[in-house]
Amino acid sequence: VVHYLQCDHSNNHKKNVNGPIRIYPNYIQEKNIRNYTSLSIQHGLYIYLGGDYACERELVERYTSDLVSTPHSWQKQADSLNNLAFSTARSQATPFNMRRFSQLVFTYKIIEMDLCLGSTNVATPKDIDEFDLWAWSEYPRLLSRFIYLWSNHRTLIGACNIPGDKCSSCFTIDGHQKARRRVCRSKQVNFKSSDFSEPLVIGCWKTPIRNSLYCELHQNDEKLTKAPRTNQKHTHAMKLRNSRQWQRQKNIFFGATNCSTTKARSESYINKCSRSFGLLAMVTNCRVIISFSEIFRSETLREIIQLLINTIRISDNALPKIACYDDGCHLVRFVQRHVGKLITDTPASNTLKNTKFYIDKAHWKNHVGTWCKENMSPYATSDLNMINTQSAEQLFSWLKRYAPIISSLGWLKAPLYLLVLFHYKNLWTCKVRPTRHFDIANMVPDSATISLPNAANTLRTTSAVSSSNSDGYLSQAATTKHDPSSHTVNENKWAQMSKEIQFNNRSSSENFISNTTSNVDNKWATIIHAV
């Protein structure tokens, strides 16, 4: 039974259009909005987030602790908890259900992370079916605070306990291609970023619909790509003949390094690929993850530069001035030649231009170019003494165990799962409890392109509503017909609602819960079973 308090405003002569206010053990509900605070979400021995079920707090925290060290699927975890209850003869109102348990843990951890990253009040939709869409619309804000906190963890939390006082002296950026989720095959989705003079091709980030290779927005592309089958024997003969023809290798556009370490894949391979290309991650030498982004086409230099510029801008110039990248020679030459041309001349791009890049020690043997050996060697400088240049590879060695879980997620949950996973990994690395509150909400700079899918989606919905496409970008999505399965209307609703929520104003419910916790805990706040 769940006990709650309800205020009908009977002593108020003015009519309240929002209806009654209900105070539950872990949140306050007003109309279609649920408000959470740090005190309310941590209240009681049980966690109740609405619906017909609640869960012991100990089980949720146990799953979180196990998640950082040992990856388990939701089904395995539910089976394990049911087996534990049976073996220890503990009473269960109902056996654990995988879907209910995963939704409760996912919702709870996103709210807890939001409160940890500076919010004093988190307002979420009442309907649990709308939570995933709301959380995805809030992803850019959460990611910005994540980057700011962990880029400045030396000053906000304290220096890591590593030899030589080398905390945050260097960062390593690299790509991980084990966690590849299903994405739409429409790769020609462009976004006009203010950091580049030409559009950035990012590809579609959405999950294909059932029995299709395309999402609901690009079903017309599937019809266009279906071509009549040619004679297989003739096709095989053509491929064999073309393979025997010698073709001169194309020179790289700046071709001064002579290192064959470029990461970009061929256009034909990209167009045929139905999965994402993993993610990019930036990790400090003390193994703290400071930024990341998903890759939907391939690990191109422009996407890496976009991630670096966004991180520099949000970190408020707290990013280390020394960096390592396994293809650093191509990255450095590209930045040096294109700042002020292809790359917009901004303070962030100039900071990137002045950052000293080296090749990490694990990949140095692959670099044979003369310019690279003279300027990028990690062994020819004292900057990397006692510096861990393989922090990104160590992170990916840990992350690859989660590849089956991440690869099975859809476009709404995948980025948030990564964000929660990396946040709790950093908390464990820095020995910080997840209930700690960092008052950084007003310190985080704004960056419209911190999440390219969210930025492109905002442009798409704006173009669809205004029915204008004068610049030509995102034309496929902007001219797509709205079908009932599309989330465009809800995306606009929660994007607009999220702007109206005052995240930094302390809720009045916080004082109420703090004053009544000790008196009424046994009367209404303890949950036995929610009916």
Could you walk me through the main structural features you see in this protein, from its secondary elements to its overall organization?
By secondary structure, this protein is of the alpha+beta class. The chain has two domains: 1-79 and 512-531, no CATH class; 149-225 and 259-458, no CATH class. The chain has helices spanning 38-41, 57-69, 74-87, 98-116, 131-137, 139-151, 153-156, 219-225, 232-244, 267-272, 301-314, 328-338, 347-354, 370-375, 391-399, 403-407, 414-429, 452-466, 475-478, 488-500, 508-525; strands at 5-7, 21-23, 28-30, 33-36, 46-47, 55-56, 122-125, 171-176, 190-191, 200-201, 279-284, 289-294, 322-325, 356-358. A hairpin with an 8-residue loop joins β9 (190-191) and β10. α4 packs across α17 and α11 crosses α13. The model is unreliable at 246-256, 467-491 and 501-531 (pLDDT under 50).
Descriptive key words:
five-stranded mixed β-sheet, 2 domains, globular, five-stranded antiparallel β-sheet, 21 helices, alpha+beta, 531 residues, disordered C terminus, single chain, 9% strand
Main sheet: strands, sense, barrel: 5 strands, antiparallel
Overall average pLDDT: 80
Helix content: 40-55%
β-strand amount: 5-15%
**Rg computed from alpha carbons, rounded to a whole number of angstroms:** 26 Å
Quick one: overall form?
Answer: globular
Report the count of strand segments.
Answer: 14
Through-space gap between termini? 6 Å
**What ranges have pLDDT less than 50 throughout 5 or more consecutive residues?**
246-256, 467-491, 501-531
Structural class: alpha+beta
Summed up, the helix count is 21
Oligomer: single chain
Largest sheet, spatial ordering of strands: 1-2-3-4-7
Biased composition (Polar residues): 464-479
Region (Disordered): 464-489
